[in-house]
Amino acid sequence: MKKLFIYNSLTRRKEEFISLHEGFAGIYVCGPTVYGHAHLGHAKSYISFDIVVRFLRHLGYKVRYVQNITDVGHLTDDADAGEDKIGKQAQSERLQPMEIVETYTRSFFADMDALNVLRPDISPRASGHIPEQLELTQMLLEKGFAYEVNGNVYFDVSKYSAYGKLSGRSVADLLEGTRIEVNTEKRHPADFALWKKAGPEHIMQWNSPWGSGFPGWHVECSAMSTKYLGQPFDIHGGGLENTFPHHECEIAQSEAATGKTFARYWMHNNMVTVNGVKMGKSLGNFITIHQAMENLEPMAIRFFILSSHYRSPLDFSDDALTAGQKGFQKILTFLRRVTELVPATDAGIRLEQVVSDYQVAFENELCDDFNTPKALAVVFDFIREMNSLFDQDDRLNPVDQAGLINVLRRTVGDVLGLLPDAVLSNKEQGGDFSGVMELLLELRQILRREKNFALADQIRQKLTELKIEIKDTADGSRWEKK
RNA sequence: GGCGACGUACCCAAGUGGUAAGGGAGAGGUCUGCAAAAUCUUUAUGCGCCGGUUCGAAUCCGGCCGUCGCCUCCA
After folding, report:
1. Of A134, A177, A274, A286, which is the most exposed, with the fewest CB atoms less than 10 Å away?
2. Cα(A254)–Cα(A458) distance, rounded to whole angstroms?
């Protein structure tokens, strides 16, 4: 198996990835809180981790990918004063919380499907794992890492000396200049809730040894990740903005409770900005994936996201997106060209070596912390080389043609996920009116032969307006739906 | 105020010590009746600014300027 290097946020270094169990990889990624439609930030995050999963599989790992659905406990505000996001949305839409959860969970998966993000193997819901969360909380109480006050249970940060090891903060720093309001119940302002007492206004609440309530947000990820992946497990992923406090708290809870390492490699993807400014719920400038897909095809969005590294911030601007759209189109055009080349057994050149070199180069880039921009550069270099070759001699051995199509499907398709069936079938010739198109092209050939270019160009122009592009080549005309 | 990133051509974006990938846009050539597609050439003696280390720095160190993130909900 090839050596894969991953930047580990915990050590702030690239490290060789060595999975806990040879040939297997367990990965947990913080999933969405389903109280609204997914936005471009989700797209970047889940596409980034989709690449991780796809590439691990490509390398031969058997991957178990767990990504939670947060449907309870995530508050709108400071952990002591806020409302439950789901509950709040339920009130404003006058629906049951679980209706909200269903609606936005389905919406989330629909968007992810459109972006060709593979579904996780397990999508556990927080509300479906209350016992596991209670158990972890209980364990922390028993071991003295937590304390109960008035039906609330808090993690005692002062008992866990490693608190801050992921985010590089010290508990002392947290006291200075902090915006955490002092809650008299808590022994230390940095202590965080494992279990919250629920007032009557809370629709979602469960019985617990400390009265009726609901779990704190951080505890779900600790409980569900280790339930399905064990502890320790290989990779924990999430958005950079969750490094603190969310991930820091996950580590504290899990490692304090069991005395074992929680996750071995931490991966954080960077944020999305829109025209240079942060895309934030509070700023009201966030673009949903659904909105973005009104103007752009999903694969153009995916291509654009992959054209920058996952640890770099990405700015969505019209110019950049247009460039992405065109770049992606170039790959499709090439794939079509290869598919349409007429195989010739007497082809002089064999491509086995160059195809295999290409695949190795492609893999090498991704082995370096999933460097998708470089991998794409390898793809484009290869395309240029092949195009140049076919411009001189378009005879291609059938074995090479199959090999070429295969390697593109494996790399651009299976690993980068840029060739979903929808794209391939959409771009294929045929369809109900292909006969009509052929007739039209034939007539146009006659016009051109008679040098009636005015009329021939008019037909081409009209078709262009109908999103059908005509290309006149030496062997005749071709058409393509745009 | 604390912690942390980043600043590369007209735009996007790789590159962490050895002499600036890739995509888009622009210019010119090939092909074409013309387009489109493809292809070739070309567009940063320079990588925010100023110092330093080094035979050699976009890459390391220090200072400054600027942008952004986290510390409060966010992927």
Report:
1. A177
2. 69
Q: What is the pLDDT of residue A77?
A: 52
The span from the CA of A197 to the CA of A86, in Å, is 17
- What count of other Cβ atoms lies within 10 Å of the Cβ of residue A377? 15
Q: Residue A472 is inside which H or E element, if any?
A: strand A468-473
Taking C1' of B21 and every protein CA, the nearest residue is: A377
> Measured from the CB, is A86 under 7 Å from any atom of strand B?
no
Give chain A residues 202-221 with Cβ within 7 A of strand B. Answer: 217
Could you report the predicted ipTM of this complex, rounded to two decimals? 0.92
Q: Please, what's the b/e burial string for A419-441 (b: 16 or more CB within 10 A of its CB; e: otherwise)?
A: bbeebeeebeeeeeeeeebeebb
CB-CB contact of A90 with A127 (8 Å): no
Express each pLDDT in A63-97 by its tens digit: 999 999 998 866 655 444 557 788 888 888 888 88
Mean pLDDT of A285-293: 87
Please check whether strand B approaches the CB of A281 to within 7 Å: yes
Give me the CA A414–C1' B61 separation in Å, rounded.
44
Burial readout A323-337 (b: 16 or more C-beta within 10 A, e: otherwise): ebbebbbebbebbbe
Q: Is the CB of A325 under 7 A from strand B?
A: no
Going along chain A from its start, the domains and CATH numbers come out as 18-269 (3.40.50.620), 317-426 (1.20.120.640), 434-481 (no CATH)
Q: Name the residue closest to the C1' of B24 by its CA.
A: A323
- Written as six digits, the tokens of A199 are 């007032």
Interval A395-447: pLDDT, tens:
888 999 999 999 999 999 999 999 998 777 754 444 567 778 888 888 898 88
> Cβ of A333 < 7 Å from strand B?
yes
pLDDT digits (tens, 9 = 90+) for A357-371: 999 999 999 999 999
CB atoms within 10 A of CB A172: 9
